[in-house]
Amino acid sequence: MKLQNVVIDDLLGESGAPDTMGREVRAGLTSSPRRLPSKYFYDTRGSELFEEITRLPEYYLTRAEQALLEASAPAIAALTQFRELVEPGAGSAKKTRTLIDAGLAEGCLERLLLVDVSHEMAEQGARTMAGGYPGLEVHGVIADFEADLGKIPPADGRLVVFLGSTIGNFTRTEGQALLRRIKALAGEGGWLLLGTDLVKERSVLEAAYNDSRGVTAQFNGNILEVVNRHLDGNFVTGRFEHVAFFNEVESRIESYLRARSAHSVRLGKLDLEIDLDKGEMIHTEISCKYTREAVTSLLTAAGFGIHRWFTDVDDTFALSLSRVESQEP
Ligand code: SAH
Ligand code: AVI
């Protein structure tokens, strides 16, 4: 059935070009320690694996955030009167339905804009939402939220939601830069709802990133398949093991792929060969864990003022609702 209420745009352009990936992968794999940018996890398979992670018993984040959304969405809609809901890194946008329902019940919401670097997620997510909410104008945007947010035209009445603790996949400096771009996207007087995972017992944190079924290990290894496919590489996933641990000093889970034996890998498109030692690690992801003070400081430094802080009795996860206070950089 042809949907009348959905538009899909591909803004990836330069930032999604194969030579951009080539540049980033070359820089990462030739640096010490070696690393790969975590946005490359999310091809079709990677997005499916992430969805599977969200259902794992150990991965408490998605359930905790969903419960908070259910408890807070009506108050958020009443306070912000958002007319447009914008979600960078939306993925399947399943949790977003709770906010959409609240926005429709409040009678304020008119438009939904879902942004994702994964073509499939942006397109499928937008089509599913347009089918489910025929009264809503839905816009799916394929874009890199680190590079392309400035290409999205401004609008009044925006609530930007950045959920899932995706902000935690960035260092403080990167996260602040990203929040400033989100601030420009939200516009004067616009709102941001930010989901952040909170610091807790090491055993709980480490279990969430080392699940017993090995789904997170597959998700981590999949980044090598993405690199192989785009850059004509010959990484063999089975030659690496998944390593994820809580670095308490940095307050973050660090994920790596560790070479089980010494071997060489060639990336044909980059004309690059790297020699890995036995036990050498490729850093693939950070997942920062926050305190309330750390979230407040991050948002304040980026020019947002916090209005509401929603958390559960155990301080598992937090949603902070803040407003653009100043467009100064
Ligand atoms: N918001 C969802 C999905 C989180 S997974 C949730 O809370 O469950 C992170 C999502 O961000 C994935 O869908 C991934 O494709 C997307 N993503 C990662 N890096 C991105 C980038 N640089 N630009 C746009 N989307 C990105
Ligand atoms: C998307 N992001 C916030 C997830 C996280 O928890 O860092 C990705 C993930 N990595 C391993 N498991 C889930």
Produce a short descriptive summary.
This protein is an alpha/beta fold. The protein is built from 9 helices and 14 strands.
Strand numbers in spatial order across the main sheet: 1-5-4-3-6-7-14-13
Could you give a short account of the major beta sheet? Answer: 8 strands, mixed
Bound molecules: S-adenosyl-L-homocysteine, N,N-dimethyl-L-histidine
User: What is the helix/strand order?
Assistant: EHEHHEHEHEEHEHHEEEEEHEE
Determine the N-to-C terminus distance. 45 Å
How would you classify the helix and strand content by structural class? alpha/beta
Shape: globular
Radius of gyration, in angstroms, nearest whole number: 20 Å
What is the helix content?
Answer: 25-40%
- Catalogue the unreliable spans: none
How confident is the prediction overall: mean pLDDT?
Answer: 96
Query: What is the total tally of β strands?
Result: 14
Sheet-strand content, in percent, reads: 25-35%
Number of helices: 9
Please write out the topology:
Elements: E1 6-10, H1 18-29, E2 34-35, H2 44-54, H3 61-80, E3 84-88, H4 96-106, E4 111-116, H5 119-132, E5 137-142, E6 158-162, H6 172-186, E7 191-197, H7 202-208, H8 215-231, E8 240-247, E9 252-259, E10 263-267, E11 272-276, E12 281-288, H9 292-301, E13 304-311, E14 317-324
Parallel strand pairs: 1-5, 2-12, 3-4, 3-6, 4-5, 6-7
Antiparallel strand pairs: 7-14, 8-9, 9-12, 10-11, 13-14
Helix pairs in contact: 2-8, 3-4
